[in-house]
């Protein structure tokens, strides 16, 4: 399956984690989770549960100028999330480098 993900320097996961919205988790047949740790996290709209699976998913980035090997990431499923979010350790595992997160390059 192909989707987009956000790179977040503020998502400090327990490991190389990928946060998935529940609808995508259903399409990937990860929902409902059979083997997950449940945590309560504070969000902008209140406290919400997240489900950190004990298995992994293989993720690869798509780039035009080279091939990139798949990386094993731990999925976290959240009903409060609307998009895929990569943890700081997932960014490192995927070889993604954020050069300047606070700069506007005229996009």
Protein architecture, described:
The chain is mainly β and about 110 residues long. The chain has helices spanning about 20-25, 90-95, and strands spanning about 5, 15-20, 35-45, 45-55, 55-60, 70-80, 85. Strands 1, 2, 3, 4, 5, 6 and 7 form a seven-stranded mixed β-sheet that branches. Strand 3 and strand 4 (about 45-55) form a beta hairpin. The chain starts with a strand and ends in a 13-residue tail after the last helix. The mean pLDDT is about 90.
Q: Quick gist of this model?
A:
This protein has 107 residues and is mostly beta strands. It contains 2 helices and 7 strands.
Key traits:
globular, single chain, Cathepsin D, subunit A, domain 1, mainly beta, 107 residues, 7 strands, 7-stranded mixed beta sheet
Q: Report the portion of residues in β strands.
A: 35-45%
* Main beta sheet: 7 strands, mixed
The Cα radius of gyration reads 14 Å
Count structural domains. 1
Under the CATH scheme, the architecture is: Beta Barrel
If helices are DSSP runs of H or I spanning 4 or more residues, what is the number of helices?
Answer: 2
Shape estimate: globular
How many extended strands? 7
CATH fold description: Cathepsin D, subunit A, domain 1
The average pLDDT value, as a whole number, equals 90
- SSE pattern: EEHEEEEEH
Secondary-structure content class: mainly beta
SSE topology sketch:
Blueprint: E1 5-7, E2 17-21, H1 22-27, E3 36-43, E4 46-53, E5 57-59, E6 71-78, E7 84-86, H2 88-94
Parallel strand pairs: 1-7, 2-6
Antiparallel strand pairs: 2-7, 3-4, 4-6, 5-6
């Amino acid at each position: 399956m192909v989707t987009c993900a956000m790179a977040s320097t503020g998502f400090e996961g327990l490991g190389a984690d990928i946060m998935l919205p529940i609808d995508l988790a259903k399409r990937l047949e990860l929902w409902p989770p059979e083997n997950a740790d449940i945590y309560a996290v504070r969000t902008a709209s209140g406290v919400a549960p997240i489900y950190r699976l004990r298995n992994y998913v293989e993720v690869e980035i798509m780039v035009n100028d080279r091939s990139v090997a798949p990386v094993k990431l731990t999925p976290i499923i959240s009903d409060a999330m609307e998009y895929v979010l990569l943890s700081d350790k997932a960014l490192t595992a995927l070889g993604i480098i954020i050069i300047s997160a606070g700069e506007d390059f005229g996009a």
